[in-house]
Amino acid sequence: MTDTLFDRADIDALLAARHPDPFACLGPHVVADRVVVRALLPGAERVRAVSDDGAELGTLACVDPAGCFAGTIAH
Q1: Mean pLDDT in residue range 11-34
Q2: Does the global pTM surpass 0.85?
């Protein structure tokens, strides 16, 4: 992944609905020693990751105005 936590090629493929394996890049993934979460949420203005019990784990940054968000979360 790039410094933005979301490859431009993955973003473009997701937005064109032609990504061969969207779950390979979306959702939570362990990258090095951190957990990175990527989401495609068209229309969202901001995104927070929360645990099952409602505790906030982190905020995802908008990396593309079409609704791609990414960020690291507590684990």
Answers
A1: 94
A2: yes
